[in-house]
């Protein structure tokens, strides 16, 4: 089992990781969506600059044709040509007025006829195009002026600003569109501004006409990408949230699976994975079952059956041994109580407890509940306290052991001889049995000195008036030696290994039958 020490930063990391993993697909998805929306806007911006540019070129074509047709007339007397000027205004859709220029002077106008105004070529970009914010006829109203010239002659046509504004409105209003002519520009408001048009913050693009000296700038205001994402990808966004949540939950479960021992034990407690195994204890003389020791096993979903020495130490350390033992006692009741009639009165049931159990009186309730599940007097509950970890006496332990005594619960000191419990200790906790540790039983057949230790323990306990249980009996020689020394009970592989509940119940039934037939043999024999 991968038990490891838990570090604080690790715990923080474990808490954060599912959030990070959940956020990752959302962040990546949002980045991709952002990029995609930006690209779409860029394409749209370029397309609209191009289309609007095309429309303005068409408008200028009309102005340019009119001017080209009038150019040969420049220099002729105005009275003769003014009808030709008006003819062009009428014929050309976008032309508002036409003019003739000769030697730097605009001398003939389609509206006024003869006229006089100097022509400043510098007003015109490349001598051709001028975006002006009004003239004497319509002051404050934008006007696009087209000029064609040849030597001293020139023809000038004007386009009403409304046609330009119309072109800028051509594709709707969700984007920014600006017509730039030289140092002047105009947007949908119809106001002519001086200088260079401001570039859009999002998806700025430019269409530079190859036929006339103007350009179209298009783009979007700040926040357009977000708006685009919200309006175009709500379903995709929902999917991202779902993916993120799924990733986070999966990560969370994966982390839990390979989590710390405490979390793993807690999970096992909740899943009821701690089950009782049973090892019989036999009586001196006929070696019939006098009782049983309940040994905890962990039925792990992946590791299989886990031995207690692998997890009990940690459970004791973390304090989780208390709820685990409570669960074990409850399971033991479930298994054994229905078969109580198979047990002789005073059948011992040994439960291992630790010092942790003695810090409050909860154990009293557990024992009370345990005994209440059996017919009165049928079982003797024995709590086995390991001698390796001594209990510190206090008011609570005093009350606890007095209460246990009143309930008729017996106390056994487990692994006796391996620790250093004093006589005072044995008396303090009103001990009833000593369980001689199997290392001493293993000395039988060894050298004389070792055997002497075993003999001393047996002698001591009989002098103290305590019952003795010998653990780890594996050979007949050991069994017989212990029998000769009047050890009350024996436990070990020689008689039975720890077994599952089903096996134990089966064996218990077989025992009952076996003892009945023994009895018959005795009667028949007698
Ligand atoms: O069952 P096994 O046979 O492997 O026992 C190994 C050790 O685990 C023994 O020292 C035994 O006392 C201890 N042990 C077994 N079951 C429990 C239990 O329910 N509680 C405690 N505290 N120790 C147990
Ligand atoms: O609670 P206690 O420390 O007494 O636990 C008994 C332990 O001894 C358990 O691990 C149990 O499986 C083991 N055990 C029981 N009988 C024998 C035996 O005959 N030989 C050996 N080696 N171990 C035994
Ligand atoms: Mn034990």
UniProtKB/TrEMBL annotation:
Identify the InterPro entries for this entry.
CSS-motif_dom, Cyclic-di-GMP_PDE-like, EAL_dom, EAL_sf
GO CC terms: plasma membrane
Q: Does the keyword Nucleus apply?
A: no
Q: Where is the EAL domain?
A: 258-512
Q: Does the keyword Nucleus apply?
A: no
This enzyme's EC code(s): 3.1.4.52
Under the heading CDD domains, the entry gives: EAL (cd01948)
User: What membrane topology does the UniProt entry give?
Assistant: Multi-pass membrane protein
Membrane-spanning segments:
16-35, 233-255
Q: Name one GO molecular function term.
A: cyclic-guanylate-specific phosphodiesterase activity
User: What subcellular compartments does it reside in?
Assistant: Cell membrane
Determine the domain of life of the protein's source. Bacteria
Main localization (coarse)? membrane
Q: Under which name does UniProt file this protein?
A: cyclic-guanylate-specific phosphodiesterase
**Organism of provenance:** Pseudomonas alkylphenolica
Species classification? Bacteria, Pseudomonadati, Pseudomonadota, Gammaproteobacteria, Pseudomonadales
